[in-house]
Backbone:
């Protein structure tokens, strides 16, 4: 153990029960014992998602997002992406690599949301096979709380709706399956599980699209293959990270025990502490009110962000710098994971020390 407090936007600090669970002996992924494990994980995921068909993958959140894109969009199809930052741009890149004809609706500047009306106007200009968006833009700490309105408009116009909720699921109230068609996420964020496991919940419409794809994705990205193994054999198509699934099962169990709504509310309360306290240290929120994420908060820093992050690391506090054009101007502080009692007090104490002016 390093003794560091992780305020990073993934991986996050895990509960001791999760750590102990991962220490179990590995089992065959073609055994009945594994089938029960997968059944339990998928049932727990359905509870956190609030429905849909959960599909479990061995890989990071990027795998989940890329599998979603490659399994639900055909080459040559027109796709509209709502983009607020770095991960919105990655979604655009992924879809273009799939061969989609991608158009974007982008925020005017970092930290402001794309108005739903602007997206709906774009939807009325042309027909789209799919609309894709990032619910919580990790690079900015912006949660797109117009997502449900945009999704309903897209569905009314016959488009599938794909959501990257890697930094949102279990920390935000993500639109339910049915309103959207696919929601990709990962264990190492608000679920507070181990890195290396990700998942996607899909609707019936999404399953039908996956089944009838003319140009299939690479095998490891093919969600129809995953669904077929899950539903027909209660297995995964390839060797999974068994011990990580032990940890994921325990992490999900902890959330269900606490209550999904209560777990989400805990993230909102932690975020509110940051948004209310940090301006007093000279750190100003990047994101406009109403769209500030529960799971990761971004702040403009009075000193270069690398300097501040290094000073905090020296004091046992890990935060993340900004991304892209904001790398040197912003720090990102997450609210996810099983932070110990007194963690925020230690964060504020370390900030005071790190930002203190040297005596003359």
Residues:
């Amino acid at each position: 153990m390093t003794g560091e407090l992780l305020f990073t936007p993934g991986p996050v600090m895990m509960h001791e029960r999760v750590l102990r669970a991962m220490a179990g002996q590995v089992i065959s992924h073609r055994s009945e014992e594994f089938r029960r494990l997968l059944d339990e994980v998928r049932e727990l995921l359905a509870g956190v998602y609030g429905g849909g068909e959960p599909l479990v993958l061995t890989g990071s959140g990027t795998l989940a997002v890329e599998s979603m894109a490659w399994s639900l969009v055909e080459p040559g199809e027109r796709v509209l992406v709502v983009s607020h930052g770095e991960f919105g741009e990655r979604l655009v890149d992924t879809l273009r690599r799939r061969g989609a004809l991608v158009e974007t609706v982008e925020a005017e500047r970092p930290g402001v949301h794309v108005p739903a009306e602007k997206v709906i106007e774009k939807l009325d200009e042309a027909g789209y096979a799919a609309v894709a968006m990032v619910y919580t833009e990790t690079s900015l700490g912006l949660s797109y709380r117009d997502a449900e309105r945009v999704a309903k408009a897209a569905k009314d116009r016959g488009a599938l709706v794909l959501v990257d909720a890697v930094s949102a699921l279990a920390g935000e109230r993500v639109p339910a399956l049915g309103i959207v068609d696919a929601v990709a996420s990962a264990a190492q964020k608000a679920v507070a599980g181990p890195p290396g496991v990700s998942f996607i919940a899909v609707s019936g419409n999404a399953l039908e699209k996956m089944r009838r794809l003319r140009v299939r994705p690479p095998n490891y990205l093919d969600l129809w293959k995953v669904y077929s193994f899950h539903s027909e054999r209660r297995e995964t198509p390839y060797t999974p990270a068994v011990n990580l699934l032990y940890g994921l099962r325990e992490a999900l169990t902890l959330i269900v025990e606490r209550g999904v709504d209560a777990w989400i509310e805990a993230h909102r309360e932690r975020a509110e502490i940051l948004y209310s306290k940090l301006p007093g240290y000279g750190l100003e929120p990047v994101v406009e009110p109403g769209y500030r994420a529960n799971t990761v908060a971004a702040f403009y820093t009075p000193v270069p962000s690398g300097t501040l992050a290094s000073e905090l690391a020296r004091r046992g506090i890990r935060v993340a710098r900004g991304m892209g054009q904001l790398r040197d101007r912003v720090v990102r502080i997450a609210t996810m994971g099983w932070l110990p009692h007194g963690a925020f007090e230690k964060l504020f104490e370390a900030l005071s020390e790190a930002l203190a002016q040297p005596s003359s």
Observations:
- The mean pLDDT is 97.
- The radius of gyration is 20 Å.
- The first strand starts at residue 5 and ends at 6.
